[in-house]
Amino acid sequence: QVQFVESGGGLVQPGGSLRLSCAVSGFTFSNYAMSWYRQAPGKERELVASIANFGGSPNYATSVKGRFTISRDNAKNTVYLQMNSLKPEDTAVYYCNAPRRVRSGGDWGQGTQVTVSS
User: Fold this and answer.
1) How far apart are CA 13 and CA 115, in angstroms?
2) 97 Cβ contact list (under 8 Å, min separation 6)
3) Residue 50 scores a pLDDT above 90
4) Burial class (CB in 10 A: 0-12, 13-18, 19+), 58
5) Which pLDDT tens digit goes with each residue over 81-92?
6) How many CB atoms lie within 10 A of CB 47?
7) Residue 26 confidence class, pLDDT cut points 50, 70, 90
8) Which of 2, 8, 75, 99 is least crowded, fewest Cβ atoms below 10 Å from its Cβ?
9) Is pLDDT at 55 greater than 90 in this prediction?
10) What contacts 65, CB < 8 A, 6 or more positions away?
11) What is the average pLDDT across 89-97?
12) Which of 26, 20, 18, 25 is CA-nearest to residue 7?
């Protein structure tokens, strides 16, 4: 059974930082590129950042480039998202998934809520 367990979200003031983690099980983690996505209230889910299966070639949405950093630890089957200089528009539920599995209609985890507010 495939599982994504996201954690690390919370309430933070503008300009603050959070580090999200996503523990993955149920497939061979190191065989898959991984991504972070987010969904704000009333909006479509969007891609935030991606990383290749062995940690190379990180890519970021324009809105988070220079502020967010994606990384992974294949020994721990975990992907991370370091978020700095947070803005109110970063408020959303954040999810991790493997893009290949998303394209084939795979399941999602419960996500972790990030709220940026003063």
Assistant:
1) 8
2) 4, 34, 35, 37, 106, 108, 109
3) yes
4) middle
5) 999 999 999 999
6) 15
7) very high
8) 75
9) no
10) none
11) 98
12) 20
The amino acid present at 10, given as its one-letter code, is G
How do 112-116 and 10-12 pair as beta strands?
Answer: parallel
- Using alpha carbons, list the distances in angstroms from residue 39 to 43, 56, 67, 90: 6, 25, 18, 10
Residues counted in the chain: 118
The total of other beta-carbon atoms located within 10 Å of residue 66's CB is: 9
99, amino acid identity: P
Residues 6+ apart with CB under 8 A from 69: 49, 58, 81, 82, 84
Res 6: pLDDT? 98
Does pLDDT of 20 surpass 90?
yes
> How far apart, in whole angstroms, are the C-alpha atoms of residue 116 and residue 86?
7
Contact between 30 and 74 (Cβ < 8 Å): yes
